[in-house]
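# step 3/5: fold
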Amino acid sequence: MVVHEERPIKPLFSKGPSLGVRLLVLVVLSVALMVVDSRFALLKPVRSQMGLVLMESYWLTDLPQRVFQGVASQFGSRTELAAENEKLKTEALLLQGRLQKLAALTEQNVRLRELLNSSALVNEKVEVAELIGVDPNPFTHRILINKGERDGVFLGQPVLDARGLMGQVVELMPYTSRVLLLTDSTHSIPVQVNRNGLRAIASGTGNPERLELRHVADTADVKEGDLLVSSGMGQRFPAGYPVATVNEVIHDSGQPFAIVRAIPTAALNRSRYMLLVFSDRRTPEQRATEAAMAQEEADRQGTAQPPAAAATEQATPAASAPASTAPATPAAPAATPAVPVNPAATPASPSQPRRQ
């Protein structure tokens, strides 16, 4: 019979001090190190060397996060840059549109200022009108304005811009009107040379940049650069407004008339705002009658007369005595006021031009 001897089993891990002892030792060691570090400079080299070692470990541990952030920032910044680029392009386009609008408003302001300055030089009543349409027929030069019969516009009313005459109203509608320009082939206007007063007829040629003077004698004193103004003949256009500037005079010895071409002073194909001229449309007889009646009314209001004198004045309207004169005594011819003129009894002479 064999008897086996039991041997003690060795533990796999040798047992050391307990956890409490270990914790106590570490706490004491930490306190000792803190006291030594605070009182002496012995641990500074050790701390600096440990900082270098720990820095490398920090860099290695933070590397994945930094790589991820770098890749994300690259993609994010590219997307943001693309979005910002599109936004800047849109803003630039809007600013360019506003700049163009500002340039148009600046030009419009300049034209309106020119028109305002020209209206200050016009003695007649004027009203500003705006171009709203152009006749599409290439053989007629007509435009449509935003003033009509409801605004007091009448047929034949002169239209001018900041530089000179443009034409006349030929068709009325309640709120709009059609204007026939000077350069229309069916239009003519009496003009005179501003330098010497030579009268002529300027006719349209169908070209918006040219007028022609018809039936001008070959020996007439017309030169290049002469300013042509409206003469007032025909009682349609007021006198003295610029019409055109002579730019070409051709003399032909074999022809009785010279060829005279002129450029309109008005910007016929560029003006957007224009003036409607409301001139005095009364005849000379009407103006004389109204002036005489106004003078007589002023004399009646300014002179206090007794009833007998008033009765004498009604019996003899051709003579009026002042208040200090006896009623039966007629006034001297020199004191006789202007008698109202009867247009039917005294018509105007045919040779005398009618004033507008």
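# step 4/5: annotate
The longest helix spans residues 44-120.
# step 5/5: archive (pending)
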